[in-house]
Structures are given as structure tokens and as C-alpha cells.
Write a structure and sequence with these properties.
The protein has about 160 residues and is of the alpha+beta class. It has a single domain, classed as Beta-Lactamase, CATH 3.30.450. The protein is built from four helices and six strands. Helix 1 packs antiparallel against helix 2 and helix 1 runs parallel beside helix 4. It is globular and about 40 Å long. The chain starts with 12 loop residues before the first helix and ends with a helix. About 35% of the residues are buried. Bound molecules: methionine sulfoxide (SME). The site of methionine sulfoxide has 14 residues, from helix 3 and strand 6.
Length: about 160
């Protein structure tokens, strides 16, 4: 397992995602514990981009339950019909929220979070097993580049579950 993360010194997020994806694949290779792998992935994303919060909510007991994350404390359970995470789960689509205050039903775990992207992570049968939630303390911080880069990382997780 690689123990040091190489992050290119650039503001070009596509380049960073391109460098990060194979490193994340190497990081989780040979480790069977899912939470250990999700924890390292959250840490790698936080370190590479300096996002405010990065974490996973897994589908459990008919809810989304907080799993590995990096950042400040967060709400532990989200109903499928609640928040950006619930919306992502029910629509099974990536959601970019440029301004969280304008998203009806947004759950504010921290007032510092200003924009957000949430992606579904599918299992091998095509069901949503968890969502990947990334928050920024800047408005309008996420674009299609993040959606594509993070979806490659979601695909790595699919291979683990
Ligand atoms: N904002 C999310 C809740 C999770 S926190 O951002 C960590 C939502 O509306 O679902």
C-alpha cells in the first residue's frame, strides 16, 4: 500500500483527480475492511483538495448512516427523503448544489458549508450502497470536473462492495 499521497501542485482539479484515482486504487488494494478503505479515501480527498468535509453515508436500516469521514462532526442519520444526500439516494444521480441555502430541505451539519456535491456509490448489482458527500466552505465550488473525478473514485469503491 502506498503511504504517501502525491498531489500535483496545480489548481487544475482534473489533473489532481487523474493523479489521485490510481493512488486511491492502490491504497485500497488488498484491504478487505470497507470502513478502513472509506476512511483512507475520505482522507485522500480532503488532503488533495482541502475540502471542508468529505465523507460517506451508507445505506443501513432504511436510512443513510454516517460512516467514515474527514471534517467536523456531522448528523449521523439521514432519511431517504431528506437533504441533498437523500435526494441523491432516491434519484440515484449526482447532485451539485452551488448554494446550499437555495436547496430545499438541505441539512446543515455546519454553517460553514456553502456548496456541496453528492454522488451515489453503486454496488455490483447496481443498487445504491452509499453516497459520497463533499462539502466546501466556498460558494459554487463544484463542477462537472468534480462530478467526473469523484465518479471514478466511486467506481473504485464499487469494485470493493
Ligand atoms: N448536507 C447534507 C447532510 C450531510 S452534511 O453536509 C455532512 C444533506 O443535506 O444531505
Amino acid at each position: 500500500m502506498a503511504e504517501n499521497l502525491f498531489v500535483p501542485n496545480t489548481f487544475d482539479r482534473k489533473k489532481i483527480y487523474d493523479e489521485l484515482a490510481p493512488q486511491i486504487a492502490a491504497l485500497v488494494e488488498g484491504e478487505t475492511d470497507l470502513v478502513a478503505n472509506l476512511a483512507n479515501i475520505a482522507a485522500a480527498l480532503k488532503e488533495a483538495f482541502g475540502f471542508f468535509w468529505v465523507g460517506f453515508y451508507v445505506v443501513k436500516e432504511n436510512q443513510l448512516v454516517l460512516s467514515a469521514f474527514q471534517g467536523s462532526i456531522a448528523c449521523t442519520r439521514i432519511n431517504f427523503d431528506q437533504g441533498v444526500c437523500g435526494h441523491c439516494f432516491t434519484t440515484q444521480k449526482t447532485i451539485i448544489v452551488p448554494n446550499v441555502e437555495e436547496f430545499p430541505g438541505h441539512i446543515a451539519c455546519s454553517s460553514a458549508s456553502k456548496s456541496e456535491i453528492v454522488l451515489p456509490v453503486f454496488d455490483k448489482n447496481g443498487s445504491v450502497a452509499m453516497v459520497l458527500d463533499v462539502d466546501s466552505d466556498a460558494l459554487d465550488d463544484f463542477s462537472e470536473t468534480d462530478a467526473q473525478g469523484l465518479s471514478k473514485i466511486a467506481e473504485i469503491i464499487t469494485r470493493l462492495i
